[in-house]
Amino acid sequence: MRTLDSDCAPVFWLLLSSPQSSLEGFHMASLYQRTQTKVDPATGKTTKKKLPKWWGKYNDADGITQRVPLSTNKTAAQQLLTDLVKQAEFGKSGLVDPFQHHLKSPLSEHLAGF
User: Fold this and answer.
1) Which residues pair with 100 in a beta bridge?
2) Is the pTM of this model over 0.70?
């Protein structure tokens, strides 16, 4: 039976502490609700209230942390965040649809450009 003092533990800690570690700069996507703090003018007490909209935090293809509003439904927000993370991973690997911007623009813009 192996324990933390076995011969494999130092190698594991060496990998995690090295500057070229693959875990460096890695942040998982997260889903959260923002809070609103209010001070009651009569009593001076502060109260925190969760806002109804769910927000997502993830790293985009360039490694920049993005915070985006998603949905008031938690399940729908989780699916939207999953899609954003998937698009970011495709962008990191170079599998980006070059016509994605054109698909979202209205037909009148396409006709005006023609």
Assistant:
1) none
2) no
